[in-house]
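Listing S7. Sequence submitted for prediction.
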Amino acid sequence: MPGLLETWTQQIGWRIRKGNVVVEGENDVALLEHTRSLYHAERGIDIFEDFAVLAAGHGDDGGVDGVNRRLNAARQLAEADVTNGAPQARFIGLFDNDQAGRRALSRACGFDRRIVRYQDVFLLHPGMPSAMGSPGPVVEKRAQELNRHCKSLDWEIEDLLSPDLMRAFQADYPDAIVRETTVGGATHRDLTRPGKARLKQYVRKYAGLQDVMGLVRLTRALRDYARLRQDHISL
Protein backbone atom coordinates (compact mmCIF):
# COMPACT_ATOMS: atom_id res chain seq x y z
CA MET A 1 0.00 0.00 0.00
CA PRO A 2 1.53 3.38 -0.99
CA GLY A 3 2.39 5.81 1.78
CA LEU A 4 1.16 9.39 2.13
CA LEU A 5 4.09 10.85 0.21
CA GLU A 6 3.83 8.42 -2.69
CA THR A 7 0.07 8.91 -2.98
CA TRP A 8 0.36 12.71 -3.02
CA THR A 9 3.24 12.86 -5.48
CA GLN A 10 1.41 10.53 -7.86
CA GLN A 11 -1.66 12.78 -7.67
CA ILE A 12 0.33 15.88 -8.71
CA GLY A 13 2.33 14.05 -11.38
CA TRP A 14 5.72 13.89 -9.65
CA ARG A 15 8.02 10.91 -10.03
CA ILE A 16 10.24 11.24 -6.99
CA ARG A 17 13.51 9.55 -6.16
CA LYS A 18 15.88 9.53 -3.20
CA GLY A 19 17.00 13.15 -3.77
CA ASN A 20 14.60 15.71 -5.23
CA VAL A 21 14.87 19.39 -6.14
CA VAL A 22 11.79 21.54 -6.68
CA VAL A 23 12.30 24.24 -9.34
CA GLU A 24 10.07 27.08 -10.49
CA GLY A 25 8.86 25.83 -13.85
CA GLU A 26 8.54 23.16 -16.50
CA ASN A 27 11.08 24.83 -18.80
CA ASP A 28 13.72 24.40 -16.08
CA VAL A 29 12.88 20.72 -15.84
CA ALA A 30 12.96 20.32 -19.63
CA LEU A 31 16.44 21.87 -19.92
CA LEU A 32 17.86 19.71 -17.14
CA GLU A 33 16.19 16.55 -18.48
CA HIS A 34 17.67 17.22 -21.94
CA THR A 35 21.07 17.73 -20.33
CA ARG A 36 20.63 14.31 -18.76
CA SER A 37 19.85 12.81 -22.19
CA LEU A 38 22.88 14.44 -23.87
CA TYR A 39 25.23 13.30 -21.12
CA HIS A 40 23.90 9.75 -21.21
CA ALA A 41 24.11 9.58 -25.01
CA GLU A 42 27.77 10.69 -25.06
CA ARG A 43 29.14 9.17 -21.85
CA GLY A 44 26.74 6.37 -20.97
CA ILE A 45 26.04 7.70 -17.46
CA ASP A 46 22.67 8.73 -16.03
CA ILE A 47 23.42 11.90 -14.08
CA PHE A 48 19.98 11.76 -12.47
CA GLU A 49 19.95 8.10 -11.41
CA ASP A 50 18.51 8.40 -7.86
CA PHE A 51 17.72 12.09 -8.36
CA ALA A 52 14.72 14.03 -9.71
CA VAL A 53 14.04 17.61 -10.78
CA LEU A 54 10.40 18.54 -10.17
CA ALA A 55 8.40 21.49 -11.47
CA ALA A 56 6.52 23.40 -8.78
CA GLY A 57 3.47 23.49 -11.04
CA HIS A 58 2.08 23.98 -14.52
CA GLY A 59 2.25 27.49 -15.95
CA ASP A 60 1.23 30.15 -13.44
CA ASP A 61 0.77 27.47 -10.77
CA GLY A 62 4.55 27.22 -10.50
CA GLY A 63 6.98 30.06 -9.82
CA VAL A 64 8.47 30.95 -6.47
CA ASP A 65 5.20 30.59 -4.55
CA GLY A 66 4.72 27.16 -6.11
CA VAL A 67 8.20 26.10 -4.95
CA ASN A 68 7.45 27.13 -1.38
CA ARG A 69 4.00 25.56 -1.39
CA ARG A 70 5.06 22.21 -2.87
CA LEU A 71 8.35 22.02 -0.97
CA ASN A 72 6.65 22.55 2.37
CA ALA A 73 4.05 19.86 1.66
CA ALA A 74 6.64 17.38 0.37
CA ARG A 75 8.92 17.84 3.38
CA GLN A 76 6.06 17.32 5.83
CA LEU A 77 4.86 14.16 4.09
CA ALA A 78 8.42 12.84 3.82
CA GLU A 79 8.81 13.28 7.56
CA ALA A 80 5.60 11.28 8.08
CA ASP A 81 6.70 8.45 5.77
CA VAL A 82 9.78 7.00 7.46
CA THR A 83 11.50 3.63 7.31
CA ASN A 84 13.82 2.62 10.16
CA GLY A 85 13.43 6.10 11.61
CA ALA A 86 14.59 8.03 8.51
CA PRO A 87 12.73 9.68 5.62
CA GLN A 88 13.16 7.82 2.34
CA ALA A 89 13.26 10.97 0.19
CA ARG A 90 14.97 14.34 0.61
CA PHE A 91 13.51 17.53 -0.89
CA ILE A 92 15.29 20.82 -1.52
CA GLY A 93 14.19 23.97 -3.34
CA LEU A 94 15.96 26.05 -6.01
CA PHE A 95 14.94 29.64 -6.83
CA ASP A 96 15.99 31.86 -9.70
CA ASN A 97 18.34 34.53 -8.38
CA ASP A 98 16.08 37.50 -9.02
CA GLN A 99 14.04 39.77 -6.81
CA ALA A 100 11.14 37.31 -6.58
CA GLY A 101 13.45 34.38 -5.85
CA ARG A 102 15.38 36.20 -3.15
CA ARG A 103 12.15 37.20 -1.40
CA ALA A 104 10.78 33.67 -1.67
CA LEU A 105 13.89 32.13 -0.12
CA SER A 106 13.55 34.45 2.88
CA ARG A 107 9.83 33.63 3.17
CA ALA A 108 10.56 29.89 3.12
CA CYS A 109 12.95 30.18 6.05
CA GLY A 110 10.67 32.55 7.93
CA PHE A 111 7.65 30.29 7.59
CA ASP A 112 9.44 27.14 8.80
CA ARG A 113 12.51 27.60 10.99
CA ARG A 114 13.61 24.06 10.14
CA ILE A 115 14.28 25.20 6.58
CA VAL A 116 17.85 26.49 6.44
CA ARG A 117 19.26 28.81 3.75
CA TYR A 118 21.71 27.00 1.47
CA GLN A 119 20.95 23.70 3.16
CA ASP A 120 17.32 23.20 2.16
CA VAL A 121 16.65 26.14 -0.19
CA PHE A 122 19.11 27.73 -2.60
CA LEU A 123 19.44 30.63 -5.00
CA LEU A 124 20.84 29.87 -8.44
CA HIS A 125 24.30 31.37 -9.12
CA PRO A 126 26.74 31.19 -12.04
CA GLY A 127 28.98 29.17 -9.71
CA MET A 128 27.40 26.76 -7.22
CA PRO A 129 29.84 25.74 -4.44
CA SER A 130 30.12 22.24 -3.05
CA ALA A 131 28.52 21.62 0.34
CA MET A 132 30.94 18.92 1.52
CA GLY A 133 28.76 18.28 4.55
CA SER A 134 29.02 21.90 5.72
CA PRO A 135 26.13 23.75 7.43
CA GLY A 136 24.05 26.18 5.40
CA PRO A 137 25.79 29.44 6.46
CA VAL A 138 29.16 28.07 5.32
CA VAL A 139 27.77 27.14 1.89
CA GLU A 140 26.08 30.54 1.55
CA LYS A 141 29.37 32.29 2.33
CA ARG A 142 31.14 30.15 -0.28
CA ALA A 143 28.45 31.05 -2.83
CA GLN A 144 28.89 34.76 -2.11
CA GLU A 145 32.67 34.54 -2.46
CA LEU A 146 32.52 32.42 -5.62
CA ASN A 147 30.11 34.86 -7.30
CA ARG A 148 31.51 38.12 -5.94
CA HIS A 149 32.44 39.26 -9.46
CA CYS A 150 28.76 39.26 -10.52
CA LYS A 151 27.06 39.94 -7.21
CA SER A 152 24.39 42.27 -8.62
CA LEU A 153 23.42 40.05 -11.57
CA ASP A 154 20.10 38.18 -11.77
CA TRP A 155 20.50 34.55 -12.83
CA GLU A 156 18.24 31.86 -14.30
CA ILE A 157 18.83 28.32 -15.53
CA GLU A 158 18.86 29.45 -19.18
CA ASP A 159 21.91 31.59 -18.37
CA LEU A 160 23.95 28.42 -17.86
CA LEU A 161 23.74 27.51 -21.55
CA SER A 162 26.89 28.17 -23.59
CA PRO A 163 27.47 31.71 -24.92
CA ASP A 164 27.86 30.32 -28.46
CA LEU A 165 24.46 28.64 -28.35
CA MET A 166 22.79 31.72 -26.90
CA ARG A 167 24.33 34.00 -29.53
CA ALA A 168 23.07 31.69 -32.28
CA PHE A 169 19.61 31.60 -30.68
CA GLN A 170 19.54 35.38 -30.36
CA ALA A 171 20.48 35.76 -34.03
CA ASP A 172 17.59 33.50 -35.05
CA TYR A 173 15.07 34.88 -32.56
CA PRO A 174 16.03 38.48 -31.68
CA ASP A 175 12.54 39.25 -30.32
CA ALA A 176 12.82 36.43 -27.76
CA ILE A 177 15.24 38.43 -25.60
CA VAL A 178 14.02 41.61 -23.90
CA ARG A 179 17.25 42.67 -22.21
CA GLU A 180 20.85 41.50 -21.88
CA THR A 181 22.99 42.39 -18.83
CA THR A 182 26.67 41.56 -18.35
CA VAL A 183 28.46 41.93 -15.01
CA GLY A 184 31.92 40.57 -14.26
CA GLY A 185 32.02 38.53 -17.45
CA ALA A 186 28.70 36.76 -16.77
CA THR A 187 25.64 37.52 -18.93
CA HIS A 188 21.98 37.28 -17.96
CA ARG A 189 19.26 37.47 -20.60
CA ASP A 190 15.64 38.33 -19.85
CA LEU A 191 13.50 36.23 -22.19
CA THR A 192 9.85 36.65 -23.07
CA ARG A 193 7.56 33.77 -22.13
CA PRO A 194 7.30 32.64 -25.79
CA GLY A 195 11.07 33.10 -25.99
CA LYS A 196 11.62 30.60 -23.19
CA ALA A 197 9.49 28.05 -25.05
CA ARG A 198 11.42 28.68 -28.28
CA LEU A 199 14.74 28.32 -26.44
CA LYS A 200 13.67 24.96 -25.05
CA GLN A 201 12.93 23.74 -28.59
CA TYR A 202 16.19 25.25 -29.87
CA VAL A 203 18.22 23.43 -27.22
CA ARG A 204 16.57 20.13 -28.07
CA LYS A 205 17.35 20.62 -31.76
CA TYR A 206 20.83 22.15 -31.75
CA ALA A 207 22.59 21.78 -28.38
CA GLY A 208 25.52 19.44 -27.90
CA LEU A 209 26.94 18.32 -24.58
CA GLN A 210 29.43 21.21 -24.46
CA ASP A 211 26.53 23.67 -24.75
CA VAL A 212 24.96 22.33 -21.55
CA MET A 213 28.04 21.74 -19.38
CA GLY A 214 26.89 24.58 -17.12
CA LEU A 215 23.77 22.53 -16.46
CA VAL A 216 25.89 19.44 -15.80
CA ARG A 217 27.79 21.46 -13.18
CA LEU A 218 24.49 22.56 -11.68
CA THR A 219 23.29 18.96 -11.53
CA ARG A 220 26.47 17.94 -9.69
CA ALA A 221 25.90 20.72 -7.16
CA LEU A 222 22.23 19.87 -6.66
CA ARG A 223 23.07 16.19 -6.14
CA ASP A 224 25.57 17.32 -3.52
CA TYR A 225 22.93 19.42 -1.76
CA ALA A 226 20.52 16.47 -1.89
CA ARG A 227 23.27 14.35 -0.23
CA LEU A 228 23.86 12.11 -3.22
CA ARG A 229 27.18 11.10 -4.80
CA GLN A 230 28.58 13.20 -7.66
CA ASP A 231 32.01 11.62 -8.32
CA HIS A 232 30.66 9.60 -11.26
CA ILE A 233 29.90 12.84 -13.17
CA SER A 234 32.97 14.25 -14.93
CA LEU A 235 33.10 17.75 -16.42
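Caption to Listing S7: primary sequence and predicted C-alpha coordinates for the chain studied. Residues 4-147+208-225 form one domain. The mean pLDDT is 94.
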